[in-house]
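Quick one before lunch.
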Amino acid sequence: MNLLIMGAPGTGKGTMSNIITKEFEVVHVSTGDMLRASIANGSPVGLEAQNYMTSGKLVPDSIIHDIIVERLGQKDMDAGFLMDGYPRTLEQAKDLSLILDEVGKKIDLVINLYVDDEVLKERITGRRLCKKCGAIYHTKNSPAKVEGICDVCGSELYTRKDDTLESLVTRLNEYYGNTKPVLDYYKEQNLVVEINADQAVEAVFAEVAKAIESVKHD
Ligand code: ADP
Ligand code: ZN
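Model of the zinc ion complex:
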């Protein structure tokens, strides 16, 4: 089973992805996480991507193409995948269709999370992440028990460089300009399920799980 999860920044793709990969047999593929790992390693891809990411702009399609081709070529992908934050442009979506065709795979479901922009601003500017295990917190909505320390593993929490109001405005513009057309592309293929993500995490997951069950095949 191959899934995509879409939605503007702050809709909760990362949170949902963490739960989905625990409950269903799919491997989480996040281009954002892969790019941040490249930056942390100081690799050439990271150096190129860094400025785009900090300002909230999309990283060029050619870079994304290369990292996706490499990732999809790895053996663990055969179990099924959950793509998070990719594809983000129509170009990337068409590219993915070609790549999947070549290896005889297809997308079974596109989960689209939607939330009002005002709520997104709140969520993004309060977001804190664990350096080590990636657990996600919010200063008001889901604070860590001890400020600045991860409940799960005890490591330090940090704020993503692009989680500023300024960068978020750019990210939302990129989303509405470039990523909305991707959603329409998948709607034409009848692959999209729309989920209201302005609800408690458990309620959102309940709807997501129902949609996944309906396309599941073993
Ligand atoms: P969010 O969805 O919350 O904005 P991500 O971690 O998915 O967070 O992405 C962070 C940044 O990484 C984006 O703003 C963009 O610069 C870059 N990025 C991630 N995935 C892609 C992609 N598929 N195409 C272009 N840029 C990407
Ligand atoms: Zn942690």
